[in-house]
Design a protein that fits this description.
Transposase_Zn_ribbon; 3-stranded antiparallel sheet; Transposase zinc-ribbon domain-containing protein; 4 helices; 3 strands; 102 residues; alpha+beta
């Protein structure tokens, strides 16, 4: 039996975020926060095939799917409206937080 974790944006810690706090995050903190918001279950999932088996490319901050038919490389923004943009993750987090109304 798997226990589903509450989505980050619905959690109490997300309600304490402000635009000021988001823009003060380091790039690594922004990455971790975006990852937690994207995959609340805790494990990244390939947006191409849905596989949970992958390895992490630390220098690129990307994952590579281990599915033999896929092999897709993906990031925290792959498969989202932010995928083809190159702004800092804190900008995307600020947009998400302002849309939700925290």
């Amino acid at each position: 039996m798997t226990i589903k974790k509450q989505h980050f944006l619905l959690s109490a810690s997300a309600r304490t975020l402000s635009l000021r706090k988001i823009f003060q995050l380091t790039p690594d903190e922004s990455f971790e926060l975006f990852k937690e918001a994207r995959w609340p279950q805790g494990k990244p999932v390939c947006p191409h095939c849905g596989c949970e088996h992958h390895y992490y490319l630390k220098t690129r901050k990307q994952w590579c799917c281990k599915d033999k038919d896929c092999g897709h490389t993906f990031s925290v923004t792959s498969g989202t409206i932010f995928s083809s943009h190159k702004l800092p993750l804190s900008v995307y987090l600020a947009a998400l937080i302002s849309l939700i109304g925290f």
